[in-house]
TrEMBL record:
Origin species: Mycolicibacterium vanbaalenii (strain DSM 7251 / JCM 13017 / BCRC 16820 / KCTC 9966 / NRRL B-24157 / PYR-1) (Mycobacterium vanbaalenii)
Protein name in UniProt: histidine kinase
Protein's GO biological process: phosphorelay signal transduction system
Lineage summary: Bacteria, Bacillati, Actinomycetota, Actinomycetes, Mycobacteriales
EC annotation from Swiss-Prot or TrEMBL: 2.7.13.3
One example GO MF annotation: protein histidine kinase activity
Matches recorded under SUPFAM superfamilies: ATPase domain of HSP90 chaperone/DNA topoisomerase II/histidine kinase (SSF55874), cAMP-binding domain-like (SSF51206)
Amino acid sequence: MTEQGERSACVIDELRGLFLFDGLTDAQLTALCADGWVQTFPAGQLCREGDPARYFYVLLDGEIALSKRSGDRDVDIWRAAEPGVYCGAWSAFLRDPDLTYENSATVTRPSRLLVLDAMTLGDFLVTEFPMASHLLVGHSHGRFHAHRILGPHDRLVALGQLTAGLTHELNNPAAAAVRAAHGLRTQIAAMRHRRAELPENALPPEAMSSLVELQDRVAEAAGKPKDLTSVEKSDLEEALGRWLEARGVDDAWEHAATFAEAGLDIDWMERISASRCCDGPTSLSAVIRWLAGTAETELLLTEITDATKRISTLVDQAKRYSQLDRAPFDVADVHELLDSTLTMFSHRLGDAVTVVRDYDLGLPDLPCYAAELNQVWTHLIANALDALAGQPAGVLTIRTRHEQHMARVEVCDTGGGIPDDLLTRVFDPFFTTKPFGEGTGLGLDIAARIVDRHRGSLWAESTPGDTRFITSLPLTVEPARP
């Protein structure tokens, strides 16, 4: 707690001009002054969350900042310098001796405050404003019960939305890996039967060596990434099918599809045909069937490898999003944070939304609370996707720029825009343009508070078809610690 400064008597003329006491009679102000006093406090903590709520404080001069405990640290939630703002035992009307402070309060500079004893203030409110006190008590109990019931529900809804996106993205590569593993098992079983068709007993050692070499080269080629477009692949499959069919190879078009997928062209077929292990149509057909099986096996193995890598990447991005592996304050690549957040929204993007990443790759790492910045990107991207909902085609642009000592991040959408009369209110708490029950109106307010804590700024610019939420964050100044 901050050290106590000098005390002085309360003057009702000073209270009369404060919005908090507007409408009180001189008799009521005199009663308050009789039980209170004015005190000057140096900068420091005024009261701590969870401690017994002894006093109610009203600011006369100076500045008060409130913070709320979250996990293992305090988060700034409010700051004001307007005379008449208050903090401390603001639930004094409950007249509960076990009441505790709901927030921690700090005076950021030397400040003069009116100090009222909590129990005395509670008696005053109940005596002078009995109906209002009953309403406040009912509201307080209702808020407590609503928070107790809806709080876990809201957290589960938020968790469910993120989980839906992650599980949707994980399902695709996982299903691909399962399909490929099943196909691989079937292919290996078929190759055991195909081996009996090879003219091994009739092949001289040098021809058998040629077949083994061909198999190794086909496997190597099939395992490499391909740069063919879908049109090029279709043309190659057509050419291979005609080549194999002209030489009497059984199941020519089926093998052509496999070889085209593996990127093996007509030159490969000519090389196989000219090898020592293919001395006739019968042996060519058997060798082609064997090598097609080899290529398909490698393709399936590549599909399993790619799918499992994709799963690992998604898990890593989810970890980066939650920042479970980081200290609370660290330097971070802002592009990694943005990409991990976009991953969480993959299930909402679909074919109707085009995502444009316009990144300044020269942007240095950002000193920040990474998990909190991810919440900023979450709110801004969710807001943009809501603006694009229902449109046949929309563009979500994430743009970063390095401007002197600041990092600039823009989240842009091509939605209908925000009217001028609403643009100045979008960051107000509880303000929302969504239908009743679909939005709390707190997302942008939370984002603005987090950015402010990072000594940055957040604002919006909007015209029809181009709405931008712009965040500017310092690259050289450490964010304020709680």
